[in-house]
Structure formats: C-alpha cells, structure tokens
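Good morning C.,

I know you're traveling, so I'll keep this short. The sequence:
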Amino acid sequence: MTASYALALSDTQVMITRCVRRSLRDPEAFFTALMLPVVLMLLFVYVFGGAIDTGHGGYADYVVPGLIVLCAGFGAGTTAVAVATDMSSGIVDRFRSMPIRGSAILSGHIVASLARNLLATALVIAVGLAVGWRPVAGPLAWAGALAMIVAFILAMSWLAACFGLVVGSPEAATGATFALMFVPYLSSAFVPASTMAAGLRPIAANQPFTPVIETMRGLWMGHTSTGASVGHEALLAAAYCAAILAVAATTGSWLFRHRTAGR
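The tokens, ready to paste straight into the viewer:
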C-alpha cells in the first residue's frame, strides 16, 4: 500500500510539474492571466467606482472579493482548454502507454490551476491594497478567507476539467466555460443585489457565487452587502463549493475513464 501510494504521488508530481511548465511556456496566456486582475481592478475602481455607491465605504473595499471570483472564472477557462488540448492532441494516448496513473493527469491540471489562480488572487489583493482597499480582518479571518478561496478555485477547476473532457476541441472548451466568466456579474460582486432590477435580484441572491463573495467580504471587512451574518454566508458557500466539487470531481473522473477506455 505504501509503495502504491508513493508511486501515485510521484506520478502526480510529474504531471503537476508538466502543467506548470506548460503554462510558463505560453507567455501570452500567462501574461494575460496575470494582467487581467490588474486591469480589472483599475477599471472598476477608477472608471466605474466613482459612480457606484454601495453604501459600504469606498468602492475598492467592496469590489475585491468579486474580482477574485471573476479571475477564478477566467482561470477555469484556461484549465478547460488545457484539458481539451490534452484529450484531442493524442498526448493522453502516450501517457496511457506509460506506467502512469490516469488520475495523475487530471490532478496535474487541477493543482496547476490552483497555483495559477492563487497567483492571480495575490495580484488582486496587492493591487487592491495599492488603490485603497483596507481590510480590517485579523489572522483568523484571513485564514478563513484563504480557505474559502482555495475551496472555490478547486470547485471551479474541477468543473472546468469536466467541460474540457466533454467538448471535442480547445476552441469548444473556451465557449463552454464562457459563462463562468460572466456569472459573477449576476451576483453581488460589483453592486449589491438589492440595487438590481426586480427580475435579477432572486438570481443574484440565490446562486453559488454570491455567498462565496459575501463570505470573503464579511471576513475581510466585517460586514456583508446582503445583511446576512458572515456565518450564514459561509455555511452556504461551503455547501455550494462542496457540492460542486463532489459532483464535478466524480463526473470528471468518470468522463476521463470513459474517454480513455480501450486506448
């Protein structure tokens, strides 16, 4: 059992290294992923922020959690494209002819996605601090916010991997994950849900992204924009992330086995 575990860990480490190096060898996509948080932060704070009154201090204090979620959606698209490329390029056939566990291939993509998105998150936080974001959280609240970010990124990464396994090409994967980059706009990411049109308020208030955003906002700033307690939002966010992660990981693993069966 110990030897089997060690082999599985070694295979996963190899696949993680491969996926990270692959990201670094695509400077255009990597640069875009790093610059997107900076551009969006400057755009929302300096172009739109002056016209938006959230009722909770400066706009920079409000928008940081939403931008983290938006960038995670963009990063999920990158993961879907990477998985679709592997599945359509024939490289998986080569891997399957080697003594490499199939699960390590998907795990490599997921961990690389987590690393990319955590780097993007760090940039959002750094730029947010530079433009006036002033969180009041203590160490425990910061740890809770980080745990929420990690859980959300893992859930989105596995969901993106499912998209990459379902579609037939990298181009189709881009289209399949397009919605993930726009769902945050129909949440409390950039304006309170109560300010939206009546038909959109129930959507913004009852979708997975909103409690994730409000949990981070509540932990960092001490209040939510929905008026609910941080604990209530955190329980909802944890339930959504756990459900998405469980379903996506199970489905993704089954899809991978199904598509590689007989190869």
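Safe travels,
E.
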